[in-house]
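Renewal narrative, Specific Aim 1. Our central claim is that a sequence can be written position by position from structural information alone. The example that follows is taken directly from our test logs and has not been curated for this report. It begins with the structure tokens describing the chain, in the order in which they were read.
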């Protein structure tokens, strides 16, 4: 024996590793599986950071035409919406235009979605206003609203960028779709109700930042106090819906006008703003008061072009003040954009890269802070318009950016006369598209009633509290439901059904032969999944078959353990007659029947000798779960007063196989010859445990631990001689076993596992 071999043997003894063991997957195998060519993967990683390089070289005139039409169309909608959403964020309208330009222009370089339009959105604008309100209430006017909003954009964008670079986009998947829909519905109602006072001119009579229900009540209360603004806002809102529904009906009745109706419908915001601006100019230009005020609320001066472009001013004290506000802002950027981009990718037949989309959002907001932009993310309404306008590539965003620049440098004088009530009408009309439709809500209920409850909780909390509490409710409810589903999986005890069908036999190819096969179905047939008249045969006597429907991990392993034990004690009898055992010799926690009075119901029950576990749905297993399997084996062998075989079917993960072998399963060793703890929480004592002996003497004729180990057949031993597969082993066409013969208790399918358990009945 060489020195190295000696070191390995000593090391194995120190850590308690077995001298011989079936070959299992190693950590090095996992590391090698991560990348077959690290250099190529690194190059591919950096290439994927700039997706536009993959399509810009193939750009053509056909794509250009579609992108110009879509880009200009979205731009005509984005300009009034950008100024409107800046109003929600309690910022001057030009900051909405800054965010609009940076969003659409920068995103095109990093996008994996051709349809998504980045820029100011209602929910993020409302959250920005909330953050500004919190900071100013604590620190006064130490920082301007614009500086607070720009700092939020820079920090939240940097965080999202880091998540994307580290490829942690999968974290977004922990928030379910109904939770996101509930939060979006609640936020949309919050925004719409919050704009009603501006629409009616009563915004100065009460707190419009209160809870949604309070704002609605106060709006109705002060309705008689509405000002002249209502004469501009209410007709504008009615006209927006009239155009939408009227042109839609026209297109349905006269298909030849469908294309014209489409563009007129989607440009209705711009038309309404233009008409209102012209009307406001005609009405207000001669009615300016001596103090410089006008009869209605209008935007007034909008600075021309980009102002103060350069490095953002980041105050450390402001960063400290924003620590508690950033999580919500970051989450909104994540979930809203990913939800929208996935939705349009699904509808239009392509797949987005969530990590790259997060990088795009992060870069957009980080760079946007240099233009005094506030946080922006994907817009559902503008993305839908972009998709319907025939967009071909993300380059459409560049043409949208040109429209915004033209508005910034050429139309700011006209923006002076835009009525604020008209912008509120545009906002209300836009955000109501985010409210879940009754059919959508009913689908949540049909698919999963629990997720419908999550949707309803997110809506109610957002409406009756704040959007922060609403989003936290959505996240916490999603996480709680996930944990409950993991901790309380739906496993089933199985029985057998024989299926016969006339047709060509798989084995002999004869026409008209009857194909007979066994299928294993739940003994409990509740839920209307199977035919209620179907006859399900119980498993062979003394055998229990259990199918997992979830990974076997620490949250659910104890419950599954107890379910199998209770089922075994219900269907099988003790291996030892306890009626002849004195009360003083019985364990305190399992007294059994009264002395001298055997249970007559036990006489007809078999003794448990095998447990078959279907692992075909198990993708993960951990130390706690393996320990619970060891406990299960010990408890069942104590109940049966003999060795109980554990057979496993459908193990396809090498790591599950490795974990089970580490727990002493699969190789045929008797449970009494193995440690009762595979990974003790408290380190075991150096001295062996001693006492007067086992609680129960060995059953008459039962082998001792030493006899158990010596009595292992060649098939069960771990020596150099490889065991031969049994007659029921699954083999390939070349007569080679599918599952290693070194682990005879691991089987490829459930039928083979059950037949093997029947053969080895003792």
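The sequence written for that structure reads:
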């Amino acid at each position: 024996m060489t020195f190295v071999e000696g070191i390995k043997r000593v090391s194995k003894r120190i850590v308690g590793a077995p001298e011989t063991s079936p070959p299992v997957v190693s950590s090095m195998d996992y590391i090698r599986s991560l990348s077959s060519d690290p250099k190529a993967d690194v190059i591919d990683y950096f290439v994927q950071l700039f997706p536009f390089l993959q399509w810009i070289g193939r750009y053509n005139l056909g794509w250009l035409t579609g992108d110009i039409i879509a880009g200009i169309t979205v731009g005509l909608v984005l300009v009034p919406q950008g100024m409107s959403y800046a109003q929600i964020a309690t910022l001057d309208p030009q900051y909405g235009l800054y965010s609009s330009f940076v969003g659409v222009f920068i995103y095109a370089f990093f996008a994996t979605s051709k349809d998504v339009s980045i820029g100011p959105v209602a929910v993020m604008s409302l959250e920005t206003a909330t953050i500004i309100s919190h900071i100013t209430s604590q620190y006064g006017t130490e920082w301007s609203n614009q500086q607070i909003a720009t700092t939020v954009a820079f920090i939240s964008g940097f965080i999202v960028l880091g998540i994307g670079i580290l490829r942690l986009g999968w974290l977004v998947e922990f928030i379910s779709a109904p939770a996101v829909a509930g939060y979006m519905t609640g936020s949309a109602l919050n925004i719409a109700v919050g704009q009603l006072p501006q629409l009616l001119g009563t915004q100065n009579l009460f707190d419009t930042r209160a809870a949604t229900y309070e704002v609605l009540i106060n709006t109705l209360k002060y309705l008689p106090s509405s000002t002249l603004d209502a004469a501009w806002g209410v007709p504008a809102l009615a006209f927006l819906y009239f155009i939408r529904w009227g042109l839609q009906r026209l297109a349905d009745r006269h298909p030849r006008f469908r294309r014209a109706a489409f563009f007129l419908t989607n440009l209705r915001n711009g038309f309404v703003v233009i008409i209102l601006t012209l009307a406001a100019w005609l009405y207000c230009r001669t009615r300016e008061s001596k103090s410089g005020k006008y009869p209605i609320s209008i935007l007034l001066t909008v600075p021309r072009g980009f102002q103060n472009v350069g490095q953002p001013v980041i105050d450390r004290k402001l960063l400290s003040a924003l620590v508690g506000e950033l999580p919500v802002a970051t989450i909104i950027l994540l979930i809203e954009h990913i939800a929208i981009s996935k939705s349009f990718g699904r509808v239009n037949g392509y797949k987005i890269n969530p990590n790259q989309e997060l990088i795009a959002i992060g870069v957009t907001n980080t760079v946007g802070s240099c233009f005094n932009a506030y946080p922006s993310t994907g817009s559902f309404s503008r993305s839908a318009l972009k998709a319907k306008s025939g967009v071909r590539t993300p380059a459409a965003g560049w043409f949208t950016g040109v429209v915004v620049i033209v508005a910034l440098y050429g139309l700011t004088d006209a923006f002076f006369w835009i009525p604020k009530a008209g912008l509120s009408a545009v906002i209300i009309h836009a955000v109501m598209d985010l409210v879940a439709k009754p059919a959508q809500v009913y689908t949540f209920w049909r698919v999963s009633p629990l997720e419908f409850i999550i949707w309803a909780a997110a809506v109610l909390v957002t409406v009756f509290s704040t959007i922060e509490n609403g989003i936290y409710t959505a996240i916490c409810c999603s996480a709680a439901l996930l944990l409950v589903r993991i901790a309380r999986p739906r496993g089933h005890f199985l029985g057998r059904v024989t299926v016969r069908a006339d047709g060509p036999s798989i084995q002999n190819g004869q026409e008209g032969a009857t194909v007979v096969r066994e299928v294993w179905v739940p003994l409990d047939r509740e839920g209307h999944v199977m035919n209620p008249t179907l006859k399900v045969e119980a498993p062979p006597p003394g055998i229990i078959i259990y199918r997992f429907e979830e990974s076997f991990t620490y949250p659910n392993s104890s419950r599954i353990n107890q379910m199998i034990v209770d089922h075994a004690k219900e269907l099988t009898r003790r291996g030892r007659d306890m009626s002849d055992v004195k009360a003083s010799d019985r364990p305190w926690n399992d007294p059994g029947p009264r002395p001298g009075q055997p249970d007559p119901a036990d006489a007809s029950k078999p003794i448990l000798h095998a447990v078959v576990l279907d692992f075909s749905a198990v993708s993960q297993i951990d130390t706690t779960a393996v320990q619970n399997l060891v406990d299960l084996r010990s408890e069942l062998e104590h109940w049966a007063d003999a060795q109980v075989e554990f057979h496993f079917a459908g193990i396809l993960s090498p790591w599950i196989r490795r974990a089970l072998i580490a727990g002493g399963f699969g190789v045929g060793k008797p449970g009494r010859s193995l440690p009762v703890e595979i990974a003790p929480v408290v380190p075991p004592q150096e001295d062996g445990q001693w006492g007067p002996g086992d609680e129960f003497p060995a059953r008459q004729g039962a082998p001792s631990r030493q006899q158990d180990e010596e009595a292992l057949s060649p098939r069960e031993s771990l020596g150099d001689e490889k065991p031969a597969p049994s007659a029921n082993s699954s083999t390939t066409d070349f007569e080679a076993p599918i599952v290693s013969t070194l682990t005879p208790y691991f089987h490829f399918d459930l039928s083979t596992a059950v037949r093997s358990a029947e053969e080895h009945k003792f």
